[in-house]
Amino acid sequence: MTSKATHDLTIIADGNIAGLEDFFSEKTLGQETYRTVNIIKVAGRDINAKLVAELQPDVLLIRSVTPVDATLLADNQSVKFIGSATIGTDHVDQGYLAERNITFANAAGCSKHSVAQYVLTAILTLRPEYWQQPLTPPILGIIGLGNIGRILAQYATDLGWQVLGYDPLLPASNINNASFAQVISKSDVISLHVPLTDKKANNNPSGSDYPTWHLINKTALDAMPSETLLINSARGPVIDSAALQADIENNKRQVVLDVFEHEPQVSEQLLSKLAIATPHIAGYTLEGKLRGTQMVYDALCEEFAVTPTQAMQQLLPVNMYLWSELKAYPDRLVKFYDIIQDDRELREKVTNGQVSGANFDQLRRDYHLRREWQF
User: Fold this and answer.
1) Fewer CB under 10 Å: which end of the chain, C or N?
2) Domains 9-106 and 112-282+332-365 share a fold
């Protein structure tokens, strides 16, 4: 291949990143430096070692479906910046990137309201009586009190619910107020908002003292009252899916999953047992997506000494969805977000006993982005 001119900027980007062409172009990145900006759009799962070695890009723009590690970058010496338009980072080996002096940015908190509103919609769709404020308010257990968990607690408090929160990585507070065992045993609803981590060990020094892989296992499920509603919009392997299926069969538990242990494949056997199932779209609002792209764009501009010229506010249509209106008129929930329609579309993709990875990804790629409710 011929060498690139020094002023060129080559970007391989996941074509499913919202607002990609609005944020990443010669107009938004090349004006001050007069560099040529080449954007190569591909499917996220097609960003692989062969492509990265062949094209030798300066920048990778990815989502959670693209693993980034030594395997991906072994034959590449050109990448200077990797941006993931996602909250989670478990798909990126940040230690390896640091060794290579490659700047990494993600979009922490970009869809915190979107995911919290997804969880609320799931709860209130299955348990509409929670709109009322009875003498004994429902207890919402939140495991993981990062950006999303904290925002969810604010909504719950605004509805008059009681919050039991558990996050061993944060100091005690008015919401970080319970042990894991207390959240498991005392909550009417439990919502998971943790990153996916393995146990720290000699062969895994970057692991966690509080690993979340299979955090919800048979032991946890056995300690959970059968009437407790369980919701996972974090990472699929946080729940042991085999133990979960047995638990649902034995206890008729209501379970809502937006993420799956063996994603992007989802077995019909599991799907048929779930109260609500959606294809990893909890954070898929227009605001959440554009905010994520904005955060990565701003970080890239800083890395390459470019003044940011694009702002998501310029791309957003008027938003008429007000939290105050929904609270006053709970029967409008379906207008704000019809979660059952998303559930139905996922179930309709079942063929030969499962939703295939291709169909799962298609649902995500073609998803009609919701609007965030103004809180």
Assistant:
1) N
2) yes
Q: Check if 214 is active-site.
A: no
Please say whether the structural domain 112-282+332-365 has been given the CATH code 2.30.30.60.
no
Cβ–Cβ under 8 Å, residues 267 and 354: yes
Give ∠ CA 62-64-66 in degrees, rounded to 5: 60
pTM: 0.91
Q: By C-alpha distance, which of 308, 314, 280 is closest to 296?
A: 308
pLDDT tens string 260-307: 999 999 999 999 999 999 999 999 999 999 999 999 999 999 999 999
In three-state secondary structure terms, 102 is coil
Query: Using CA atoms, how far apart are residues 111 and 18, in angstroms rounded to an integer?
Result: 13
Q: Which of 35, 113, 263, 291 is catalytic?
A: 263
Q: Check if 263 is active-site.
A: yes
pLDDT 10s digits, 74-91: 999 999 999 999 988 989
Angle at 105 between CA 99 and CA 110, to 5 degrees: 150
Q: Considering just the CA atoms, what is the radius of gyration of the chain in Å?
A: 21
Q: In what order do the strands lie in the sheet with 81-84?
A: 37-42, 9-14, 59-62, 81-84, 103-106
Query: Domain extents for the chain?
Result: 9-106, 112-282+332-365
9-106 has CATH 3.40.50.720 classification: yes
Asked if 23 and 293 count as a contact pair (C-beta separation under 8 A), the reply is yes
CA distance 307 to 297: 11
Q: Within its chain, how far is the Cα of 234 from the centroid?
A: 6
